[in-house]
Amino acid sequence: KENKLWGGRFEQTVTDKVEKFTESISFDKELYKHDIMGSKAHASMLAKQGLMSESDKDSILKGLDEIQRKIEAGEFEWRADREDVHMNIEATLTEMIGEPAKKLHTARSRNDQVLTDFKLWCRDAIDRIAASIKNLQVALVKLALNNEGLIVPGYTHLQRAQPVLLPHLLLAYVEQLERDAGRLLDCKLRMNFCPLGACALAGTGLPIDRFMTSEALGFTAPMRNSIDAVSDRDFVMEFLSANSITAIHLSRLGEEWVLWASEEFGFLTPSDSVSTGSSIMPQKKNPDPMELVRGKSARVIGDLVTLLTLCKGLPLAYNRDLQEDKEPVFDSVKTVVGMLEVSAEFAQNITFNRERIQKSLPAGHLDATTLADYLVNKASYCY
Ligand code: ARG
């Protein structure tokens, strides 16, 4: 067995079960690109501060580029015995370029490294989600434009309330999504402070330049408190909270469209391309994508609850429990992006059944309020 990077003082190797139980490479390899970005910024800073020679830095940067190429070409060997993404990349770099690679971890711990990677990853993920939100908003606006002037029954308590324009209703979702995007951007601003230099928890006595790495990685500034930097995960709690609210909005949209596609309502028909059938009932055409949008919101809430529960009993500073923070975040992002994309696709593939809607309008006294207002107006002429 290869000696672990941290194995200098260890006399025994870990058992296979422990190795398998504690590894995170099976999921945190997702962070590879951001890990490499962080390492490049760190190496450049070490060289500028005289903590590493220029030539060592150059071979590190070249080696890291080659590793990224290999990963993206599927030629990189991820090894569970190398535990996580940080040690996999560092060990391979050492195999490739030798001694200089060992200097890369100067004035750095995996504790501040993983946070740096994770924040960079989340920043990109937020941009991806915001783009998907915009895409759905566009689809809803188009649907509104295609159905200008179409009057539908508006509901409260799921009882007929007042007539409303369909675009009025569709644009309600557009507003909700706008706030969802706003929450994500707020969250990104608050998370955008650089943990690098916090090291394990207490910073370092070496003359590093945290402002240089922070700026190179596009952060607003370095984090102020090193203990805070490596312990908290509030940025992901906030991120997954925002995702949960988005998921709930989409779930409600899903519920409405599923209802409207039913025989009882019959207000909309999804095209075959966004419907699925039944294996036993030949007549069935089900709006499954929107049912799953509703259903998958459960996962997104579950991911948030996992994260909250994970952190609730942790003392300062870093605890290994925190390794469990990644999968819920990856899952939440993947799920929400899928929900947004499928909702947009569904919106592009439904027809509102004008005739059916028109025919339904006389039922339920939809104009009662207008009539009452008319009477009030009429009476007020007497004053
Ligand atoms: N894989 C770890 C995580 O994701 C990286 C940090 C490990 N630090 C440590 N001291 N064991 O949290």
Key words describing this protein structure:
mainly alpha, two-stranded antiparallel sheet, two-stranded parallel sheet, 15 helices, 6 strands, 6% strand, binds arginine
In short:
This is argininosuccinate lyase. With 383 residues, the protein is mainly alpha-helical.
Shape: elongated
Number of distinct beta strands: 6
**Biggest β-sheet strands, sense, barrel:** 2 strands, antiparallel
Helix content: 55-70%
Mean pLDDT: 95
What small molecules accompany the polymer chains? arginine
Task: Write down the Rg.
Answer: 27 Å
Quaternary status: single chain
Strand order of the largest sheet: 1-2
What does this structure look like?
This protein is mainly alpha-helical and 383 residues long. The chain is built from 15 helices and six strands. It has a two-stranded antiparallel sheet. A two-stranded parallel ribbon has the order 3-4. 36% of the residues are buried. The mean pLDDT is 95. Bound molecules: arginine. It catalyses: 2-(N(omega)-L-arginino)succinate = fumarate + L-arginine. This is argininosuccinate lyase. It comes from Populus alba x Populus x berolinensis.
